[in-house]
User: Fold these one by one.
Assistant:
Number 1:
Amino acid sequence: MASYKPVVVPAVPRLGEKVTQDTLYWQGYKTPVQIKEFGAVNKIDFSPVPPYNYAVTASSRIHIYGRYSQEPIKTFSRFKDAAYCATYRDDGQLLVAGSEEGSIRLFDISGKAPLRQFDGHAKAVHVVGFLADKYRIFSGGDDYSSNLWDIPSAAEIVSYTEHTDYVRCGCASKLNGDVFITGSYDHTVKVFDARAKSSVMTIEHGHPVESVLLFPSGGLLVSAGGRYVKVWDVLKGGQLLVSLKNHHKTVTCLCLNSSGQRLLSGSLDRHVKIYSTTSYKVVHSFNYATSILSLALSPEDETIVVGMTNGVLNVKHRKPEESKEKSQKKRQPAYRTYVKGRNYMPKQEDFFVSKPGKCVLRKYDKLLKGFQSSKALDAVLEPHIRLYTPEVTVAVMQELNRRGTLRSALAGRDEKQISLLLTFVTRRVIEPRFTPILVTVADMITDIYQPVLGQSAVVDKQFLRLQEAIGREIDYQEELLEVLGMMDALFATLTKKKATYLEEKKSNGLTKTLDQDTCN
Amino acid sequence: MVAAAGLRVVRCGGSPLHGARAVFSADARFLLCTAGDFVKVYSAATEELVRLLRGHGGLVTGVGLNPHNRLQLYSCSLDGSIKLWDFTDGILIKTFTVGYKLLALYALDSCEDSVFVIIPKRGERDTFQLVSVKLTKTTGQDVEAKEFSVVLEGVDASPKCTAFGREGEYVASAKNFHLQVYFFKRKQLNRFSLRATNAKGGNNLFTCVACHPKEDCIATGHADGKIRLWRNFYHNKEYVFSTMHWHHDRVMDLSFSIEGTSLLSGGVEAVLVQWHNGSDCKKDFLPRLGSAIEYISVSSDGTLYCTLHTDNRITIINSNLRFSKSIQGLIRARDVKTGLVVDPRTKALVLNGEAGHLQFYCLQSDKQLYSLDIVQQEYIQQEGLNQTDLVKVAFSAQGKWLATVEEREEEPDLELHLKLWFFDEETQSFKLNTQISMPHDDHITAMCFRDMDELEDDSLILVTAGKDCLFKVWVILEDTDPEAQQSLSWSCDFVGSYHNYQATNCCFSEDGSLLAVSFEETVTVWDSSTWDLKCTFCHPPGKIRDICFGRLTCSKYLIGATDHGFLCCWNLLSCALEWSAHLNVVILQPDPLSEHIAAVSWLSKESSLFVFKPNEPRPICIQRNLCKEKIQFAAFVPRDVPETVGSEKYIWLRRSQLYFLTDAQELMTFSTKSPEERLTVSSKQLAVEESLPVTPFSLLLGKHRHQQSQGDIDLTKVVRNHHEQDSPAVKELLHTPAHVLPSASFLCPIFINSLLISKEKKSAEEVADEVEMESEEAEEDSDEEKDVTEMEQENIKSMDLLEERTCKLSKAEEKELRKVRKMDYSWISAF
């Protein structure tokens, strides 16, 4: 037995950008907090342990911010010149930073003065970091060398001078305590093993390398330089996996989200792009005021911190997801009714009868079910349906037309209702998806209300407006057809099958003249 | 086995059920209704067809229970005979030959040995009379019943327009605008007339009459949807009537409930209305019964109602107006536009069914498998409305995709929708995947999938041809976004045209490499990978009506039929006409499993069938005069088990069977079996006890029991006798009071001796053992068949059919058949 079938409102593909899961996720941030720093922010690093403070390196200072604090909760400012690349150790206890004068300093988070100072680089040190074994530090300097330091003795272990230009970025493997990677302006990325005398792998990026990143698994390496972000398979000997060119200026920083599913890249073109690491397609992008130098994402993607060239630190916090829970709570019935029958465990011999879900009909459907066509039309001309979901109104008109009762539903209305109907028709008749049915509606209205024309100024005005709208649309269509004709002519000259096309045209022209003859 | 018997055309479904009102048996267990030349007995509980009463030579026009023996049934037919049946056993008891066309039959309690029938008046056309026929009680099967007396003159031919009143005291009959009531006892005839139209312009034409079972009250239905209740009609002047109005169109049938407290009415709205106490204000509805109600009947205990619909559906309804069951065979569609399509998954025949639905009709069980709602719109039953029609259906090779086209023609513009449905394995039904509005600017004339078994998904292509002079190619697009709701969707890939001619047909070659599209007079052949036009064929004058590619060994041929009466065969290798024949072909249907092509021609009011192979112009088989009606569509349905065909001439029937649908929407097929053989097989199938549904288990059990009983009929007697012989000793032992019995030690040997079997009866005992052995063997057999239980019912039936045939076969043949069966098993297990 069939039940009443509700009116089908045809779904039209929404134009514009698709709302995906990603856009929803990445739009779920509050309005950003702007913090002014003293100079360009060259590095932001989150502490890996709660409460996830972050160190911001800008100018000659390292500021440490708490999660929601707008003022630094701690500052390391014992640098004569610019400091670079303040990085936390795995346990969040130690912080290391390079500097313009070539020394590397190691700080205790709770202290103020540096614990150790490593001197050895002849020029500025732009990149420092801890190895995974926690007791060694790697660094890269503008003197083309990449060094390895021992923390307890503050001594240099090994110095690789393989790069032929400034070393400006690097990272350490999280799995192997001996492996670290540096990228240089000589267009190469080199993988070093502390146990080996020289680099174990060299990857040719093709542009000055601004940032490198190793996936948590250690199998994939991401390098950024120039406008390109390139992903390399380390385990296959540094084979290029994919090359992404989505920015139109140099990419300066890279970052992975907490789940490792998304890759973020910041660039001088003021954009942060988010890629899916499965498809390497851009799934979302952020827009900032100025060129981006550094980027960091807190654990659980709670905060996005972006540092820019003009010294502004942009902090975005995630919106708490409370609103949903609230609405759910509202709908929950009382405990007694909620529990009723729910805690019954069905026995094996029980016969389970599923209760059919109650079908809730919309108001217009209820009226249509009762064949009340006039009222159904009234129901869909309510302001909230008419204005926000015109497709519902049109679908009901279509249904009434199908039932052959549209004319009687349109008839017998007063001045206000007619003008309302006409406003709707005037506004929507030019939308291609509504045109066929609304033309019929307009025809019927003019048919029905022709005798009373001239009795109401409001309605007459609406009719004139409708005429105007349709006239405008016709002009527009004519113009479009003209353009189409021009394009056809252009394409016709382009195609190789010119001859056959002309022939066809000729024959058409001939038949046309013949027709005219017969007409005459 | 079967001698080269001639080919016979057999009707296999779709015979109109609505010849007369259906009748419930006295205990409401069976429902008896007419179906063409037969009377069908359905079980009201299981919807199963229990018996098929055949014997009438014409359309059966009326059935009625014998009032004096409720297990017997009268039926009357246009062949001029009244037959008395025992419907529980399906036995014809008596045939009364009247000699006139009988149009309706009424059997009353009050009338001893006579029934009322409506017959045409001798010598006058379109005039009918109600007569009472005396059924003589003479013995013998065929009896002449020439003794009849006219009761009413000038009655309507329809059985609905005449009704008998309370205890058969009067008869009411309506014709046009007159109602006449005849009182039997007083021999008085009262006539009441209505004006043709009333003040409001309603049409007062009488459409049906019903009489109250307890009171003197007549209900009449009218063409404008009114129902009038007439009372006090003993007097010619002082009669009164009250009017009730709900139906917006013609009242099709009326029926009072058993006690007369409520009145049921039905019309074209497909709504059953129950009026309480003869008042206008209180009524109940049972809406959406599918199609117009033709007849309403009530069971004698009042628990069930039954409505017969114009689309050959029977609906059984509980007395509280709850829908209970529906018996549906081949649903009669308003207009079959989709043609006959075979669903590759279920092997069911697919065609238009209920409005906006697609019916899947199972050929083996003559039942509707299910009905798929394509249009998904509320169906408004009203004359003059342009309804959405389903016009084209196509299945992909494995039945994974279904494409449907629906159209609705409103005067200036046309609404077209192309819908693509995906078979969901989980819910085992088709799910809407893509809907394309206005795929073409004009009517779609043809649609086909590229049939490629191996490369199902990637290379799946749908082609539609339209009157807007285009053909369009649709392909599946895969959305690579893993989070997308739906990963597959269809979109247009290529649009082709040819000199602005209307595209009329399209067809893919067997390997899918070539697409043939016919444009009015020309057939164009396109490469399906690059969409380049390869070559064109035409056979002027005459537009192409149908095209198809040859298959298997004949795949290099393209066959086309033109509307100037030519059948042409082109060779695709030489691009030349191979042969042509002068034949007005209506339908061209290739067999999917062999090279054969069936062409049905329509010439001088008769259809003929020609079966040929494209490589030779001489037809293999010609069958003239298939049926009087025009054949609309035909389809080859693959057989489950290849049939052994005796004659070379009918070799094309080996692997698939040809079904065709006539203008009257009757489904026909060919049978090489002689009629008797068909009869026995089907009657055996029907002889299922207690109208239980034929489950594999019941068949298994039935066979088992049958085998056992065959063996030991006489032996059981012997054994039983034996037991009876020594029963006195045991009886004595059991019936003597305990306190007078001798000691147990004395009784024991007597008792044990009584249980022993004497030497001369031992042989019998051995035989009994053997019987047991046999039954064990039978059990083994049944074990073997357990594998088959997964099979569908129809397979079981055909298996059973095989089994029964083995009884008649020689042992060698039996072995062969076993082999065949074994082979089949493996095929099934792979299913």
Number 2:
Amino acid sequence: MATVDLKDVKKVYPGGVEAVKGVSIAIPDRELCVLVGPSGCGKSTLLRMIAGLEAISAGIVAIDGKVVNAIGPTERDIAMVFQNYALYPHMKVYDNMAYGLRNRGTPKDEIDSRVRSTAKVLELSALLDRRPRELSGGQRQRVAMGRAIVRNPKVFLFDEPLSNLDAKLRGQMRVEIKNLQRTLGVTSVYVTHDQLEAMTLADILVVMNAGLVEQTGAPLDVYEKPASIFVASFIGAPPMNLLALTGSFSGPVLADGTAIGFAARETPAVTLGFRPEDADVTFNAEALAGALVLPATVEAVEPVGAESFLHCAAGGSRIVVRVSGRAAAKPGDQLRVVAKAEKLHWFDQAGKRVD
Amino acid sequence: MIGQSPLRTFIAHAVLILGILIVAFPIYYTFVASTHTLQTILRPPLPLLPGGQLWNNYSEALFGGIGRIGGVSVGQLLLNTTVMALGLAVGKIFISILSAYAIVFFRFPLRMTFFWLIFITLMLPVEVRILPTYKVMVDLGMIDTYAGLIIPLIASATATLLFRQFFMTIPGELVEAARVDGAGPWRFFFDILLPLSRTNIAALFVILFIYGWTQYLWPLLVTNSNDMNTIVIALRKMVSFADADTEWHLVMVTAMLAIVPPILVVVLMQRWFVRGLVESEK
């Protein structure tokens, strides 16, 4: 049981490259914090600094209220699950799980009972005598998890643990990780570049970009109120539609000259956004009060079963609209995209959200 | 197989058998010679079948001592050579695995300088530094000692390089997982690195053992007394230019005995050796 606190943590590499430029995150006890962002955003570096595998250039990392900047990974009492599992290839599953406990001088019979009970939880009991190369990807993933769980550490660290699994298995393991984390009540930090994983796993979602935190919050809050254009386009699949605005503050105009008719309340906005599922299409021509109406041309239709995505040209750029079921439109159709005013997001020159 | 016709099979086998005969015949002939009396050998032609002196010749060589090399027995020669070859193989592996470990897994000042220093010695054959090394051995009083036979040859840039290349293929995540699991440098070395290097060590052992067994120039220089000779040097000393002085039957026995230990090492370690060369499983 522990909290994890990061205060203005920075990482500067010897060459002068700044990978993490001052990140502060407070993770309460028992919560799962997901760091999400594109590759090279510094999320893995941050995780490795929490683990103690990477030196901290500036700032403070505290686990359970104790500053751990100067102590090694062993003494931090953390357990890590790696992307490629990093199982010891010459050891049996049992020894892989027991290794950390042995190094800490845990009595033999305690090791045995802990390994066996953890194996039971993860359904690995039948595999304890196998070597990693005799296991499937999913089973290796479980062993890697088991190796972390068996130690009963203060903090779990996950470094893109599911990225080597196929899509189906990934969905399964995602649910399992969430359940395990909740049952065990161990504070966790989880790094991923997959926004779906981030949304479904996180208690706290931290969106990172270029070494900085773009937004921190509950996943749905982040989804509904993205703090910046970056977050808006990173979280959600397909991403938010973004349209450039010109014209005056009170009468913004889209790139193709369409006047919108209303505007952001306080600050001038230069970008307008709405999510694919917050818009609808209509073939009717009547004006709708309090809604954004865009004349659009359908360019492609992607039916995925329960829903369809219409790719359209509108307002001088390309947008995607999600309609449920089968789409009535086909490529080449002229129609109108309608989005309610309260579902619109406005962003200023710097890409920050304005209301 | 591509060719299944009987003719092809016959030709393939014929070529293989011919090859084996060409390689094996001299060895067989040596064996035949080692079972005859000196008189039979010196009176040509030498029979193609083994004679009845097998027991006499071998026991005389192994336990009796051979006149031309000061009455030293082949048993003593085998012991000397085994000590040298084992010492070299084990010592080279020990030193090079530790140096490679330091160079790959530790960050210290001048790390690359040290690596290049080791690497550069590859360009210098033993012969180039043999006189200064000899002088050092004389000054240290290490002539005619096992240490003098082994230590000057014990550093191996090749083996260090091989271990370095192997260590560099070990994923960084594995090293980090061990650190998180509480393994310090020694534990990591013994629990993870050494077991993973087993096959490489086995392959290297075979190569280095044979290298040590067949050393010629250095043992020739550093051993003066007959009972410190290695078997290869002794074999050379036994052969005189005047045929009559040479106990050919004993020379043949010694030659036969000299090839037995390397063969044993290869045969016994073959399984490991092949795995070490083929396997790249991580």
